Amino acid sequence: MTVPLSIVDSPAGAPSSHAEDFFARQKTSAAELPRADVFTRNIVRGVFEVLAGVREVEQLARWTSEEVYRSLVVRASLAKRARSARGVPAPRDIHQIRSVHLYAPADGVYEATVTAAARARTRAVALRLEGIDGRWRVTALALL
Fold first, then answer.
1. If residue 44 lies in a helix (H) or strand (E), which one and from where to where?
2. Using CA atoms, how far apart are residues 67 and 69, in angstroms rounded to an integer?
3. What's the average model confidence in pLDDT over 83-97?
4. Residue 62: φ, ψ to 5°
5. DSSP string of 132-143, one letter each residue
6. Residue 94 falls within a domain, yes or no?
7. Of 8, 23, 73, 119, which sits 20 to 30 A from 99 (CA to CA)?
8. What is the C-alpha to C-alpha distance for residues 143 and 56, in angstroms, rounded to an integer?
9. What is the pTM of this model?
10. Does some domain include residue 102?
């Protein structure tokens, strides 16, 4: 015996179906995720390595939102072009993380500020982490 299958779009404003809820992005509690301070240090280090040209931006795609990923692709391309125009090789001294400050406005969400220093420059980074689908994802990133 076969059961007929019918797929019908729900009208606008109608509650979502159980299947849509099941397959949508799932928020994850901070208690179910790795320590936010360790993740923050590692992801910021990875961002600096991408901008320095010693890591491929694709390696960070899993831990960033689509918007953050696209902005990193653009910034990495611009940094590479600038190094090429000046004839400067990729820097050897990647920024060292000096401090990480975290604030949790909600469960599974952290906002972080990071200061990092290299030989000639100190930078600040602000980012937002959200627990989504069982891992931290960077949903906002600002490099100063």
1. helix 36-52
2. 5
3. 76
4. -65, -25
5. ETTEEEEEEEEE
6. yes
7. 73
8. 18
9. 0.80
10. yes
Q: Which backbone phi and psi does 138 adopt, to 5 degrees? A: -85, 115
Structural domain includes residue 21: no
Could you list the beta-strand ranges (E) of 8-121.
96-106, 109-117
Domain total of the chain = 1
Instruction: Give the whole-angstrom CA distance, residue 13 versus residue 1.
Output: 35
Domain presence at residue 97: yes
CATH number of the domain that residue 132 is part of = 3.10.450.50
As a whole number of angstroms, the distance between CA 83 and CA 22 comes to 46
Distance spanning both ends of the chain, measured CA to CA: 64
Rounded CA gap, 46 and 114, in Å? 13
Pull the structure tokens for residue 130: 């959200």
Domain span holding position 106: 27-143
Amino acid at 124: A
79 or 90: whose pLDDT is higher?
79
